[in-house]
Amino acid sequence: QPKRKAAFGSVGRRIPYRILHVISQDGESLGDMHRAEALRLMDERGLKLVLLRENVQPPVYRLMTGQQIHEEQLKRAEKKKASPKPGVVQKELSFSSAIAKNDLETKIKQVALWIEKKHHVKVTIRQAK
């Protein structure tokens, strides 16, 4: 069993499992096969083996080109950027467009306080009836 989770990318020839479930570069399943057979297939096609899921029996590997690996890494980086960071607090404030002046001033003070505290602030204005 591997001690640490590898980052997404080509795993090369170091595969800690004997039996693998291999998926072709087109996305079709090639079935379960021995590590040596998967490496032979990788060399024949000029592709790289990439670990997709290791928490299943047998672990799932996919044959990919360098370009496919790069695109998948970019996609995962975008998804990671889009997800909120654990230390960042996001505050949301919602009010009607028919809000009274003093209520608006109170909410502006609240937003200013949140910004000082380095919170992300989302303001939603609903149209009055």
Automatic annotation (TrEMBL):
Record has Transport as a keyword: no
Annotated TM spans: none
Pfam family, one: IF3_N
A GO molecular function held by the record: ribosome binding
Keywords: Initiation factor, Protein biosynthesis
Keyword Cell cycle: no
Gene Ontology biological process terms in this record: mitochondrial translational initiation; ribosome disassembly
A single Gene Ontology CC term: mitochondrion
Residue ranges constituting the Translation initiation factor 3 N-terminal domain according to the UniProt record: 11-78
Family statement drawn from the similarity comment of this UniProt entry: Belongs to the IF-3 family.
Stated name of the protein: IF3M factor
Source organism (scientific name): Hylia prasina
